[in-house]
């Protein structure tokens, strides 16, 4: 009964308003293979002790399918969304190839940049065991990778087209709510966390008014690359006063400073 109520509640959006304007990465296509990302239903499955689909999408607790505000840029929640915890399997992609990220469709926020980062786990990205439940995550059995040590390298970024004034988020929406990033060919093979993000900037004229939607997935990179670029800790990616975070988007823009560290394309 409890399960039923919770699921009905999600369907009718009691936890989320308005449900269609927010969301997550629901799936990816890597190496031509579709893999599910995350689903809010999994949260209730876990809480209710039910089994749920095994996916490389990180666990997260954003019950309103919402965002991380700039006031949490120096909080662990910005790393891989609210209470983000690593998945226990990984997808695979070849360096030089692409990962398509599919967002909740339709997606409503068409003002803002799109960004993709990778962080090398320097070992396994997937340490939790099958029996791990949310309330046991801090036990030895369910030891998680320490996301606060992950160093993120930005491999893809897109802001606004100054000719058309179309934002990357608008391109994502027009592309069936999906965004495709290329994995640099020279990136060393290994176990990585991919952090894909859109920053909704419709409220960016107000300090703290931007909305970050980060989402993480475990993806192993294959190939013969040799480069291990230096990354940035998640809590050091952004400041609420960054020029691309706190600005007026309702004028004709002739420059836009894409948030985050420098782009690395190999
Ligand atoms: C991963 O977690 C899921 C959900 O708890 C579980 O069904 C699956 O067996 C686990 N897989 C591995 C490889 O641990
Ligand atoms: C901006 O849009 C114009 C018109 O569609 C296009 O020709 C141009 O290539 C775009 N610029 C960039 C940097 O994508
Ligand atoms: C559009 O994206 C959805 C997932 O959001 C997918 O199921 C569907 O196949 C896609 N449609 C096309 C035409 O690619
Ligand atoms: C545009 O450039 C000006 C001058 O360098 C800077 O002050 C402003 O923050 C930039 N605007 C954006 C949105 O990046």
Automatic annotation (TrEMBL):
UniProt cofactor(s): Cu(2+)
Domain Auxiliary Activity family 9 catalytic: 22-130, 137-253
Pfam families linked: AA9
One GO cellular component term: extracellular region
Entry keyword annotation includes Disulfide bond: yes
Cleavable signal peptide: 1-21
InterPro entries assigned to the protein according to its UniProt record, in alphabetical order: AA9, AA9_LPMO
Alphabetical keyword list: Disulfide bond, Glycoprotein, Secreted, Signal
Location in or out of the cell: Secreted
Keyword Protease: no
TM annotation in the entry: none
PANTHER family given in the database record: ENDO-BETA-1,4-GLUCANASE D, PUTATIVE (AFU_ORTHOLOGUE AFUA_1G12560)-RELATED
Protein name: Endoglucanase-7
Gene name per UniProt: cel61b
């Amino acid at each position: 009964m409890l399960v039923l109520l919770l699921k009905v509640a999600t369907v009718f959006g009691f936890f989320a308003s308005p449900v269609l304007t927010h969301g997550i990465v629901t799936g990816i296509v890597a190496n031509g293979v579709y893999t599910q990302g995350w689903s809010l239903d999994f949260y209730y499955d876990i809480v209710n002790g039910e089994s749920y689909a095994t996916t490389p999408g990180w666990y997260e607790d954003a019950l309103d399918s919402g965002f991380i505000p700039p006031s949490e840029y120096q909080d662990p929640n910005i790393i891989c969304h609210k209470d983000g915890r690593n998945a226990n399997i990984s997808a695979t992609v070849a360096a030089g190839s692409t990962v398509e990220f599919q967002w909740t469709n339709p997606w409503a926020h068409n003002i803002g940049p799109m960004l993709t980062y990778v962080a090398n786990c320097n070992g396994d990205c997937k340490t939790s065991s099958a029996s791990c439940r949310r309330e046991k995550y801090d036990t030895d059995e369910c030891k998680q990778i320490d996301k606060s040590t992950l160093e993120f390298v930005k491999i893809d970024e897109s802001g606004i087209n100054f000719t058309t004034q179309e934002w990357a988020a608008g391109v994502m929406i027009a592309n069936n709510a999906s965004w495709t990033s290329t994995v640099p060919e020279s990136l060393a093979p290994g176990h990585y966390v991919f952090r894909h993000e859109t920053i909704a900037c419709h409220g960016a004229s107000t300090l703290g008014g931007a909305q970050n939607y980060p989402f993480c997935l475990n993806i192993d990179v294959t190939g013969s690359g040799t480069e291990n670029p230096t990354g940035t800790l998640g809590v050091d990616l952004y400041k609420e006063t960054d020029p691309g975070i706190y600005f007026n988007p309702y004028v004709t823009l002739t420059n836009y400073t894409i948030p985050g560290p420098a782009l690395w394309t190999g």
